[in-house]
Amino acid sequence: MKRADPEMIDTDNPELTEDDFARARPATEVLPELFGQAVADEFLKPRGRPRLANPKVHINIRIDADVLAHWKSTGRGWQTRMAAALKRTMPR
Q1: Domain limits of the chain?
Q2: Fewest Cβ atoms closer than 10 Å to its Cβ: which of 7, 17, 64, 82?
Q3: Cβ contacts of residue 83 below 8 Å, gap of 6+?
Q4: pLDDT over 90, % of the chain
């Protein structure tokens, strides 16, 4: 075993021994108010927006500049309106 450098020994925070690990208990047992099941459940909740049943698909498309300028000039939501117009022209 390698001998410890006396200058590197931290007496305020000694290295854990096998006995220390054998006596260790889970944080949920030691501090249930911080790591209890209710807290664990909070961390297990899905994050972000819920998944859509019919998500949009990202594509790249080349269209004439004047067509794009027209749709953009209609303001916010122009992409949704453009998609709705395309949907109306779909064969049934």
Answers
A1: 6-44
A2: 7
A3: 56
A4: 50
